[in-house]
Design brief:
Chain lengths: 268, 308
Amino acid sequence: MIKDSIILANEIRKQSLGMVYRAGASHIGGALSMADILAVLYSSELKYQPNNPSWDERDRFILSKGHSCVALYSTLALSDFYPLSDLLDYGKEGSSFLSHISHHIPGVEVSSGSLGHGLPFATGVALAAKTARKDYRTYVLVGDGEMNEGSNWEAILLATKLKMNNLCLIIDYNKLQGYGRTDDVLPLYPLKEKLEAFGWNCIEIDGHNHDEIKEAFLKARQTTDKPTAIVANTIKGKGVSYMEDELLWHYRSPNEEEYNKALKELEK
Amino acid sequence: MRTAFVNQLIEEAEKHPNIFLIIGDLGFNVVEEFARRFPDRFLNIGIAEQNMIGVAAGLAKEGYNVYVYSIANFPTLRCMEQIRYDVCYHNLSVKIVAVGAGYAYGSLGASHHATEEMGMLRAIPDMVVASPGCPLEAKMITSISANYNGPMYLRLGKAGEKQVHCAEPASLKMGDILEVRKGNAAVPAVVATGSILHYASEFLKEKSIDASLYSVPFVKPINREHIKHLAETYNNIIVLEEHQKACGLGSAVVELVSDMYANGELSCFPKIKRVAIDDCFYHLSGSQSYLRNNANLMLTEEMFDTNL
């Protein structure tokens, strides 16, 4: 288990790149944009027991942007849920490591892949804690493009009604989605103000600054009567110069030369 | 049927502290008693069916047996992908309860006609599709659902349906086909699901037709031994349902008989006549019985003429 979030984030990026490179898979850009958030979650924020993934008191983390799965698969391996060597199976015939996050992998709460599912599901998980008077917290990480889905806004209305201070939504706001800029495809701006108007405690941060991420989680835990949304401003492809803020890396997989170049940049 | 359902659900909720009821802002004069007795396990989630299923799945993941209640196509077709992916793919204990099967909300129009959803739901792995024929069956199915840990659809009529069974069947297990009346095996047998069962029962009585009548309270799964018995006993079977012909009960029966015949489990293949909606919408105002007649969901004496 890596307790230093900066080191963990860097390892998540390297492992994720290795996975997509070996498998010829897509979606590395969105995996790199959320690596810092995952690193803070799994190094200090979440309560969990890697040898007992269904521990009743664990905090629940739900990845709704399931296409960015390589970052979570890597995080879980680096957090001792299973050996790093298991990641070599990713994308192989018959492997349980699907190219959208799979709940058949230890530590993964919910499968996702179809967008707009994670937040309603997480709201139910958080409601279960309120109903059964349990102390676990529920975290859900969604993509910004995913906020196009009406189902998310249905859940946002409900979480306010239920005063779900045990629910923390993190939006990976990298401002690129399937076919272009988020604000060209279906404008979200001003996202923070929208969420506040819906009654949420909303914190806007630099999603690559670990101190800001930690501080936001702390504030979320201190909120008593509202759900919290963390609008994490991120850069798609963060950490690899030629991938940063480039839509192409929603789809492309690095070739050998590109992979080696990326690794070299991350080893600096 | 909805009264039989909710009364039984209240009884089950007393015994099972994990039963949770979510309504989609429907259920006026139906769910109030449940809400009063179990306020912590009741939620009106508003008119937001995608979220309703997602939240139900999240609750079920944490150990609740969650009932979602709404009308006709709203808790089914409207949120079909959430049902498939959140509930069934994760094999969670969510019970989808829709009132208004078939043309029960006749004059409200096609938006409120539940005439395709059984087929859509029975195609999804791990989903159980229950379609009671009378309040008694609705009560028994509700009891089964409270003790079943998995996805299930309860297709209810509305209110005021009459009982069909003379006495409570000794037992009902998931997949059972129930004999309503025993007739002459040489006469075509009627196999029906849903509240149209009562119509079939009355028709046979009025016309003094000595035909057997069976109720199929579960369109999925269907007990293979029971189907085998029907196929071996009757040369002619009429399947009656208030649903599109494609993919409903008739389809399920034909598929099962065909599979069993093909793999040698059955040595005979009866004639199976499907009485169902013939691939169309209706846009006329009318009561449930008017719309059934309009859609030709009717038995005729000719169907039972064994000389044909």
